[in-house]
Amino acid sequence: MVPCQTHVLLKWQEHFNSSWAAEDSLQIARRHGAAALYDKLLHNKEVVTLAQPVQELAGPRLPDFECESSASAEKEEYLSSLLRSQRWLAHRVLTQTSYTLGLHHRLVVLQRVYYALHSKYHDKFRVQLPSHSRDSGTECGQIEPTSEPFLPGGAPKIKSGTDVLIEMGVRTGLSLLFSLLQQNWRYAASIHPESVLCNDVLNTASSVLASLPPLSLANENKIPSVGLDCLAQVADFLKKTSVSSGSGGADPTGRRLALELLLGLAMQRGSLKFLLEWVEIALAASMSSSTSTLSSSSSLSSQQSAGVGFDVIHQTLLQMRQYSGFRGDAVNTQVLKKDADGLCRLSQAALCLFEEQICNLASYCLCSCSTDAAAPGTESDTVMVYVWGSNSSHQLAEGTLEKILLPKLTQGFSDAQM
């Protein structure tokens, strides 16, 4: 964030990257289009104009030649000062011409679009271009000196030593944590069944996750690469824990807490992909529990391992209806049943979630569109499309909104048939 040659301060804001990445390049090539986009930068406070210095307007202080006599060297210095002042004044006048202003607007807009595209598509590939990134950064610095604040080094660069140390510390810390949890489960199963400390860790993690605002992890562009790797490692560990059985795996309470924590992560990430993955894991865990029931004489342990908290599933269903704009009575063929321990069967919970997110919500939106299309007095059957969820990569075509909690009528799918 440094001032340019035309005395402006450039401060790119990350939440506008998706809209700038979708700008039409033909509009930038036209003078009026570039001026409109530059006005947009001014309106969004991404370009701040600075006051121009006025000390040069006064010019150099000259002596009174009628009263004083000056040496030839002093006269040369006075003449040089006058010429410098005139050149500065001419430069300032030329920077205010329409051509110079239009060129400056176009260059600033191009820098903004380039920064948005780089942040959206190329941040994940910094390690893959070691030598080319340095060359590209040098060329960019020569051609456009004002691009350095917004994109250090120009093109993608190698990770710094600090980033590598942080990533190494996080990865090794997670590996150590997972090893300690598995070791504690094995120790509790063989020696002290009452000392299951790892279940307290999972329970605390679930409580912290439940206290976050909705869709806190939906915008992956705001999460650094180390954070995404951590989420992937945690999800992989929880999946293995959920379906593990036997003396080397987690106990029934640990498997239940792992499933509940994995469901909380899926809800916070706000993507259908993660919810469907949870349904698949829950069905696999239920199948694994049913298999172990046939080979085990302890029916109580098998029932506990196949359960998940009733309140957790019920709260998840309520959140899905609340943030999806559902305003009707859900017609569910699957009814949650709570046992004496406050649990419900995994297979039943998985089917309820699948029915809620696929059948009920899709049918509700389709019925709403059909009702509006078949209203009396309409000449044609119009299908309206509503969108909601994460818009971090502009996948919903809804401007700069990063997440949409309630269904919103979109104009981007006006020709939809069904």
From TrEMBL:
Keywords: Repeat. It comes from the Eukaryota. This is Hect domain and RLD 7. It comes from Amphilophus citrinellus.
